[in-house]
Amino acid sequence: MSGxxxxxxxxxxxxxxxxxxxxxxxxxxxxxxxxxxxxVRQPAAFAxxxxxxxxxxxxxGLHMDLCEWDYCGGEWRQVYEFAAVNDEYAVAxxxxxxxxxxxxxxxxxxxxxxxxQHVHQREPVHHIAIAAARKLxxxxxxxxxxxxxxxxxxxxxxxxxxxxEGITVGNLLEIFRQLPEGTTELSCHPGRDGALRSSYCTxxxxxxxxxxxxxxxxxxxxxxxxxxxxxxxxx
Length: 235
Known about the structure:
Strand content: 15-25%
Number of domains: 1
Mean pLDDT: 95
Order of helices and strands: EHEHEEEHEHEHEHHE
CATH superfamily: Glycoside hydrolase/deacetylase
CATH class: Alpha Beta
Shape: globular
Number of helices: 7
CATH architecture: Alpha-Beta Barrel
Largest sheet: 7 strands, parallel
Distance between the termini: 16 Å
Low-confidence stretches: none
Number of strands: 9
Structural class: alpha/beta
Helix content: 25-40%
């Protein structure tokens, strides 16, 4: 329908930890999260997959997890690496492996693809991820499909410094007001894990609270924005 505005609210990092899972599930059941992206190599992946198996309406994608970098002491430092992002063969093998594990533990293929810290935006990961998404016939964040991407709901600046204004109710309402016609994916990172070893920890609590705030659903209704999941859209 002309002029329609649809919003997919996708929670990244499903499976990162039990507390992260709790926040994502809360933001799905009490808030506006419609989809999530699973990290199959992380400690709570099986628990996340179990929830996905018992909630088939919850759209689950693969959060391709190749490495992580953290901003510490004024510089970016690598936390871990499953595949060197400049090694085409290692990347292809790792993505294939993660897709295989996803199917094994979730019992179905992903509804969408994206990547941890957006590493698929750079080559050679980019063309490998595109090939994988095309083979499966599913969207790849910012690359395949007519779904716009909005990463404006985030509690850190580009240099890793705190930006709590980015995860407030006010900022989310402003994102709604400026949402264009068509379908947009809004990424988020809810969680309830105070022991998470990450520079992005307390922000996950704040995100969960904002996503579950009753003013958010009221604003979606007032703005005539329809919530959608990846399972409900076509390429």
